[in-house]
């Protein structure tokens, strides 16, 4: 759809078949990003984003009145949700049935924007095999005193550890402070085994360099270190989706990067929606993700748990 004429106030806008109300409402003050801009951003990025974020349980960070106003995290489908937002039924950890949201196609992204979503967070498994993860995430969380160069080095260290065990690793700057190192999995192991592997590997790295890393959540132990947050891999946990905007000043985007370009980045929040749209003309830094899937087997779990 064409952008509204300069100077005109569009009463509404249709993006990916979904009516976007208040398209001129500024949701990010810095950069003056409007709701219409966001809807169009997601329409254009949908191909690359949905390859990673589609067809899996989804949580949204919704900020219906914009970034400056209160936001809330939503996991379940609510009353009167638009049909464009997909649903997936699964069991909560306590065995209770629950209906989660899921992205089916570009219209689901537009429906989320219409509901005020500023962040998309995903499970590590797909709807059709919801108990068997197909992506492993190491969420590197630096203490505020840790510089980005150390986070980059940590990402390379995690990459090396994964590759040594036969997995492949891709890097994403989160739009916040850290880097996510993502391994595409052949879906064979369940959440319990994948989380065991993630915990074992994070623990092994922390034990090998305790001055720089921790693998436990304790804030006190994090001082001056990087927390290798492996807990994203537990059942029911989420990680921010590739190409999601963040509800932070300047509309930073969680951006997949190549390992080569990561080496030259100075922060995790350097890409905004405009930068990411420009990047669509360049080769996909995560090309090869699907072909790179590899399984986590029993021997690998035992290897990381052995000290
Ligand atoms: P950063 O690089 O700044 O750490 P991040 O996305 O990794 O960015 P974390 O604080 O490490 O942010 O959060 C890890 C994950 O926890 C988030 O990506 C999200 O999926 C999940 N999360 C965050 N807030 C909530 C919440 N209120 N409820 C449930 N899960 C949440
Ligand atoms: Mn993080
Ligand atoms: Mn974290």
The H-and-E topology, N to C, reads as EEEEHEEEEHEEHEEHEHEEEHHH
Number of helices: 8
- Coarse structural class: alpha+beta
Shape, principal axes of CA atoms: globular
- Quantity of strands, as a count: 16
Helix content: 25-40%
Beta percentage is 15-25%
Topology (elements, then pairings):
Blueprint: E1 12-15, E2 18-21, E3 26-28, E4 33-34, H1 35-53, E5 57-62, E6 72-74, E7 86-91, E8 97-102, H2 106-114, E9 117-122, E10 135-142, H3 148-164, E11 170-173, E12 179-184, H4 191-208, E13 213-214, H5 219-222, E14 226-229, E15 239-240, E16 255-257, H6 259-262, H7 273-279, H8 298-305
Parallel strand pairs: 13-14
Antiparallel strand pairs: 1-2, 3-4, 5-6, 5-8, 5-9, 7-8, 9-15, 10-12, 10-14, 11-12, 11-16
């Amino acid at each position: 759809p064409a952008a509204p004429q300069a100077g005109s106030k569009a009463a509404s806008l249709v993006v990916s078949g979904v009516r976007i109300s208040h398209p001129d409402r500024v949701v990010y003050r810095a950069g003056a990003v409007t709701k219409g801009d966001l809807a169009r951003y997601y329409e254009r990025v949908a191909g690359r984003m949905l390859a990673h974020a589609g067809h899996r349980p989804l949580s949204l960070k919704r900020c219906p009145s914009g970034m400056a106003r209160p936001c809330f995290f939503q996991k379940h489908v609510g009353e009167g949700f638009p049909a464009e937002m997909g649903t997936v039924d699964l069991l909560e950890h306590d065995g209770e049935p629950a209906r989660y949201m899921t992205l089916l196609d570009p219209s689901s992204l537009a429906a989320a924007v219409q509901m005020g979503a500023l962040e998309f967070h995903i499970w590590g498994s797909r709807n059709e095999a919801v108990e068997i993860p197909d992506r492993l995430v190491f969420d590197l969380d630096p203490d505020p005193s840790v510089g980005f160069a150390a986070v980059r080095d940590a990402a390379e260290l995690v990459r090396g550890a994964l590759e040594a065990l036969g997995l492949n690793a891709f890097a994403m700057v989160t739009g916040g402070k850290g880097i996510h190192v993502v391994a595409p999995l052949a879906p064979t192991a369940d959440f319990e085994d994948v989380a065991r592997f993630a915990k074992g590997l994070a623990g092994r790295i922390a034990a090998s360099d305790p001055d720089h890393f921790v693998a436990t959540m304790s804030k006190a132990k994090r001082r001056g270190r990087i927390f290798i947050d492996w807990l994203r891999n537990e059942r029911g946990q989420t990680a921010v989706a590739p190409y999601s905007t963040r509800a932070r000043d300047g509309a930073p985007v969680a951006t997949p990067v190549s390992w080569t370009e990561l080496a030259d980045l100075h922060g995790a929040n350097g890409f905004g929606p405009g930068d990411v749209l420009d990047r669509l003309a360049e080769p996909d830094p995560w090309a090869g993700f699907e072909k790179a899937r590899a399984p986590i087997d029993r021997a690998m779990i035992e290897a990381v748990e052995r000290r």
